[in-house]
Every structure is written in C-alpha cells, then in structure tokens.
Design goal:
Elements lengths: L1 E6 L3 H16 L3 E3 L7 E6 L4 H15 L1 H4 L4 E6 H13 L5 E3 L7 H5 L30 E5 L1 E2 L10 H5 L3 E2 L2 H13 L4 E5 L15 H10 L8 E4 L9 H9 L6 E3 L7 H6 L6 H14 L4 E8 L6 H14 L3 E6 L17 H24 L5 E9 L7 E5 L10 E5 L10 E9 L4 E5 L18 E2 L2 H7 L1
Parallel strand pairs: 1-2, 1-3, 1-19, 3-4, 4-5, 6-9, 9-10, 11-12, 12-13, 16-18
Antiparallel strand pairs: 7-8, 14-15, 14-17, 15-16, 17-18
Helix pairs in contact: 8-9, 11-12, 12-13
Iron/sulfur cluster (SF4) binds next to helix 6.
C-alpha cells in the first residue's frame, strides 16, 4: 500500500509517527508525502489542549476528503485524540476506518493490509519502543529525537497527559545508548532527548541521577564528527547538582536547560499542584548559571489558571523580569474537562487570559531583544539547517542555545565563498539582532564531508509545534 502520514503535536508524538512509519516500511508498505496519491492516510493526533484538539479534528476531516477526491481507501486516526475520544471519533466521523491509541502503534502495518490480517493490541498495555524497533526519521538527517521515557507520575492539576500516556516508565539504559550510537553513525549531529519529564529518567530502573548517568555515557560515544546532545522537559525539583555538573563537564552536552516552570506565584503553583514559587526558582536559576557558565535557559508558563489574580499575574511578570530567561513560551490556560483544575473556582475570563498572554510575551520580547543585541559582533558555532523557509536568499542555522522548532534561529547572509550543506557545523559572526532571531555571515572554510552510514529518512506532513503554539 502507499501510505500518507500526517503527524501533529509534540516531538514525542513525532517519534511515535516515526515508529509507525518504520513499521509500515518494514512490512513493505510505501510511504508518500502526497495524500492524493495515498491508498491509506494516517493522522497521528494531539489533544492536550483545545487548539490542539481542533487542529486534529480539522486535519482528520481534511484528509477524509481524499477518500472522495484522491485514491485513498482507508483513513486511520492515531495518537492522543484517540486516547481521549476513541468512541466519539468512531461514532461522529464515519470516514475513519480504524483508530489506534498510543500503546497500539505496532499494529499500524496490519491495519493497512487486508481486513482479515488486522491484529489487535491491548490499548492499556504500556508501550515504549526500543533500539531494535524499526523507525524512519521525519526530521532532517542531521538532528533526531530520542524518546527516553513515556508517561508521567506528576499530579499537575491542569494536565491530562498522564490520563492517556500512562504512568512514568523509562527505556532501558543500553537501548538508548545503542539507538544514539546508530543515529550518530548515520550522520546525525544533534540528538534531543525527550519524555514528559526527562529528569525522572531511571527512577523506575532503580537509578539515582539516571539522566546524568545517561548523558555522561552519551557524551562518551565515539563519533565521526562533533556532536551535540540536549535534553528537553526538565522538572524543576528534579534538576540536581550532579546533573548540572555533568552538563558542565562534557563539551558535547549542550549548555541548555529546558525547564517548564508554569508560573511563579506560590498561590497559583499550589493550585497547580506543583509547589515552589518565584524566589525558589530564582535561586535554582542562580545555581544553574553558576555551575554552567553561558547556559541558555528555556521555560514555559500558563496564564489564566483558575484563581490567578491580577496580583499573581503581576508577580509572574516581575519574576520574568528578574529571571532574564533566554527563551519563554506562554500558554493560555485550557479548561480540560477531565483535568483536576476543571473543578476549581475562580475561572478567569477569556479576554483577561489573552490580555495576560499578550502582556507577558511583550515583557519577554523586550528581554529577548536586549539579550540578542548583546551578541552582535560575537563569533558563534552553528549547525546549518538549510535554505530558509522564510526567504531563499538566506540559510537557516542554529546555535547550541537554540533547540529545533521551538527557539529562534540564525540567518546566514554570507557563505564566505564556501559550499554550505545541511548538518555542517560552522562558525559565524553575528552582525544583526532581532527579537528572537540573529543574522550574520560565515567566517570559516567548509569542513571535509565525512562518510556516514545510510539513514532511513522520510519527510512527512507535520504541523510544527511552533505553528501549533502560534495558534495558541
Ligand atoms: S510534568 Fe508535564 S506531563 Fe507531567 S503532569 Fe505535569 S505538565 Fe503533565
């Protein structure tokens, strides 16, 4: 069968899509990026908040049209929307032929074949892929995500992810090392470790400071070229001194901490069942910056949480001004009917929520612009991504302090008379600074190409998390 794939939501969902594509290819199915040519279309959905649910339903209906206009005979819906609304999807969208949840992704190939060959999986049996699981990369060849754990045990009252991703479970240590070693040998230069909470890694395996131990081993992997290793989604009270010391010690561990704080007011954090408050976070930031000089810190906040007063919000704005963070994402509170916070009083009206988002983003935009301005004239190392989507005159690249898809980028306006290739690590001098992005020219010679093993790659239709965020 020719199978078309659409992947929505976060990088964790993208890895699930890559595993499903690996399964399909391993069973001889062909993948296509053109839905009008596909015999079967798979939509891997997201549903953690309203806008994401809307996008998933719109995309399912859009792909269903190809059963009328294209050659598609089957439409399969996978992912987090299925975990929440399995029966509703089957009842309300008759164009959908099969639904598979996040624990059933290894059945995808059988659903694309004749009906009598379809195999069932127990939707409640916790699933987590491993290093021998067939997987096709949907990211550009030079960077890849590795999911090191699934599920979450934290009780955050606004979050419903544990309801459909299940309890926290880590991948085996050696399985992650084996997968990373293979990816580096296939030309991947940057690996981003992901999970709902990466800082809990290994706790269920009896490991103390499991993430630090994993990072140390990853840093020691022999690679044909320089490599970057980053982890995303740290939980604040799990950021240990051992973890920080490990990042500081190994050059290939990028000096970057992504740590959603969600708020800074003790009152709101208590209602979120996350605890702590701004002063504790400022001390943590101070410890992080003292241990890892030049570290870039990213976080995200929720505004409009039930019971958030104007004073709480002002406290959050004051915290952001004091914290001087490098990257900040701002979410508007989404009142999910199965979340604990759904039952809280003090709901904030929509207009106020959006005004608070706008105000907080304006506070951070000024901070980001000022921090970027200080970088003019600096020489930095960048990973080349390729021709810019925005303008073909420029190439895009990222510094170590810029994670893929969620942070700003560096635009290259001068190739120094050299041949640029995606995945090259080059040196540039910054000549221009904008609110989130930087501009500059290369100053070095192009590196020798290094022979790498062939990597199973397949570009798919995605809506980037940043695009999803734009819609938030
Ligand atoms: S840590 Fe993240 S995934 Fe886990 S419950 Fe909290 S917000 Fe949800």
């Amino acid at each position: 069968m020719k199978v078309g794939f659409v992947s929505l939501g976060c990088p964790k969902n993208l890895v699930d899509s890559e595993v499903m594509m690996g399964q399909l290819a391993a069973h001889g199915h062909e993948l296509t990026a053109k839905p009008d040519e596909a015999d079967v279309i798979v939509v891997n959905t997201c549903s953690f908040i309203d806008p994401a649910k809307q996008e998933s339903v719109e995309t399912i209906l859009e792909m269903a049209e190809y059963k009328k206009t294209g050659v598609a005979k089957k439409l399969i819906v996978a992912g987090c929307l299925v975990e929440r609304y399995r029966n509703d999807i089957q009842k309300d969208i008759p164009e959908v032929d099969h639904v598979i949840g996040t624990n059933e992704i290894e059945t995808i190939a059988s659903l694309c074949g004749p009906a009598d060959e379809a195999v069932e999986a127990n939707p409640l049996a916790p699933y987590l892929y491993h290093d021998l699981t067939p997987r096709l990369l949907a990211t550009p060849r030079h960077h890849a995500y590795i999911k090191i754990a699934e599920g979450c045990d934290h009780p955050c009252s606004f979050c419903i992810i544990p309801q459909f991703r299940g309890a926290f479970r880590s991948r085996r240590f050696e399985s992650v090392i084996a997968e990373a070693t293979r990816l580096f040998s296939q030309g991947v230069r940057e690996i981003n470790l992901i999970g709902q909470d990466t800082t809990c890694y290994g706790e269920d395996l009896g490991l103390k400071d499991g993430l630090a131990l994993l990072l140390e081993r990853l840093a020691q992997i022999e690679t044909p070229q320089e490599k970057w290793v980053r982890f995303l989604y740290a939980y604040p009270n799990r950021v240990t001194q051992k973890l920080l010391d490990t990042i500081a010690e190994w050059p290939s561990l990028v000096k970057y901490i992504d740590m959603p704080l969600q708020h800074a007011s003790a009152n709101v954090l208590k209602r979120m069942k996350r605890g702590a408050h701004g002063d504790i976070f400022l001390k943590l930031l101070e410890r992080i910056r003292k241990t890892i000089p030049g570290v870039a810190i990213r976080t995200s906040f929720i505004v409009g949480f039930p019971g958030e007063t104007e004073q709480d919000f002002e406290e959050l704005c004051a915290f952001v001004k004091a914290a001087q963070l490098d990257r900040v994402g701002v979410f508007t509170y989404s009142d999910e009917e199965t979340s604990k916070s759904f039952h809280l009083d003090g709901k904030v009206d929509k207009r106020t929520i959006h005004n608070r988002k706008r105000k907080l983003m304006a506070v951070q935009r000024r901070i980001s612009a000022a921090r970027n301005k200080k970088m003019i004239g600096q020489e930095v190392e960048v990973l080349l991504e390729g021709p810019s989507q925005e303008t073909e005159m420029l190439w895009e690249a990222r510094m170590r302090s810029q994670a893929p898809e969620i942070d700003g980028v560096c635009y290259i306006n001068d190739d120094n008379g050299t041949v640029m290739k995606p995945g090259q690590m080059r040196r540039m001098v910054i000549s221009e600074a904008h609110d989130y992005d930087l501009v500059g020219g290369l100053i070095d010679e192009a590196p020798q190409d290094v022979k790498v093993a062939n990597a199973p790659l397949f570009p798919i239709l995605t809506s980037s998390p940043e695009a999803t965020r734009q819609r938030l």
